[in-house]
Amino acid sequence: EKDLQLDGLLHFVLDDCDQCLDRPDVQQDIRRIFDETPRRKQVMMFSATMSKEMRDLCKKFMQDPLEIRVDEESKLTLHGLLQYYVKLTEKEKNRKLNDCLDALEFNQVVI
Fold it and tell me: How confident is the model over 42-52, as pLDDT tens digits?
């Protein structure tokens, strides 16, 4: 429907790309959106499991792709990772986020 302005897009990111592209209806939607984005953009596709056929399909979306693989599952473990979840209304979110950031000690955070 072209409601989304894509002409300034710099990055095209697809997480769990193997699952998305494995479904023909979703793959068609992704291709349609991809074709509407600028030719010069960074394309990133992520998956924990990907067959050779799926890697070949993903590479069709990229120019000069770089593939990074983690062979040992132990390298994927984030030791010391703590996760917090709080159910809030939309109005409460910013205040609670500030409270958490003030109260917790961390050297990295993903929100």
Answer: 999 998 888 88
